[in-house]
Specification:
The chain is mainly beta and 266 residues long. The chain contains three helices and twelve strands, in the order E-E-H-E-E-E-E-H-E-E-H-E-E-E-E.
Length: 266
């Protein structure tokens, strides 16, 4: 999940290092009773190449953020890790204007936590819905430093100066193949690659086979964390339905995520 979107400070320096990649998406999160609300403005750098539509992977990253922060509240001081994450769009996402999200708790169990999300345009028209499930990190030494995760989340600032995939260092390496390196700007509270950013690698692998398309559905099952990188996503698409595997190239190419996708128009 995306709990580590706080700014980091270099040792011996009062100046913060570069922001976490997800901070530059401008998604501001606030509490509203038992819910978490998020909002951001959409800019061209956030859209799928060759289209005027917001990336589905960005909606997945925001869904991971909202549900993950709810999981932090449920599991604190333990650190939650994402088990499953999915988003399903009614229509291609807007390429400009405001996007708003709401995260709600579905179930809080002893070992598994489930939350749901809904995203709408600024005028209230629905964009998509989704859900995520979490468990606590097996490493008992990992703990949250604050019980109020939203309060300590660094506020978003600025905006992307380059397209999202370029900013994240995600490259298409051929049909059905996308790669990006592990970096300090892409980690979560478990010090592993952020699950929302893995959604970008999945999306890029699929789009390399379907240029000009956008994803109507994206689902990810997290089998184990990406600890070393690079992150390698490999996709195959038939009749608009994609099947994707994500492996940790620096950890004996272990399988870390299996995912599925569907593009609009199929």
């Amino acid at each position: 999940m995306s709990e580590s979107t706080t700014q980091r400070t270099a040792p011996g320096s009062s100046e913060p290092e570069r922001r976490h990649v997800l901070q530059e998406l401008g998604f501001a999160v606030t509490r509203s009773g038992d819910e978490l609300h998020g909002a951001a403005s959409v800019f061209p750098e956030m859209c799928v190449p060759e289209t005027a539509h917001l990336r589905t992977s960005i909606l997945a990253a925001w869904a991971d953020m909202l549900t993950g922060l709810l999981a932090v509240d449920a599991f604190a001081p333990r650190v939650p890790v994402t088990l499953e994450l999915d988003v399903h769009l009614f229509r291609p996402a807007p390429g400009k204007g405001a996007v708003r999200g709401v995260g709600r708790v579905v179930k809080t169990g002893r070992s598994v936590f489930v939350a749901a999300v809904e995203f709408t345009r600024g005028d209230g028209k629905p964009i998509c819905f989704g859900a995520a499930s979490f468990m606590t990190a097996p490493d008992l030494t990992l703990t949250m430093t604050s019980p109020t995760s939203v309060d300590r989340l660094a506020p978003p600032s600025g905006r992307l100066s380059v397209p999202f995939a370029e900013r994240a260092g995600c490259e298409r390496r051929g049909p059905g193949h996308a790669v990006f390196s592990r970096s300090e700007e892409a980690l979560n509270a478990s010090n592993t690659v952020n699950g929302g950013l893995i959604a970008l690698g999945v999306e890029e692998a699929v789009l390399s086979l379907t240029p000009g398309a956008t994803l109507s559905s994206l689902g990810l099952r997290y089998l184990q964390p990406v600890r070393y990188g690079p992150v390698e996503a490999t996709a195959e698409v038939q009749e608009g339905l994609g099947r994707i595997e994500v492996r940790d190239a620096g950890n004996e190419h272990r399988l870390c995520v299996v995912a599925s996708s569907r593009i609009f128009g199929d």
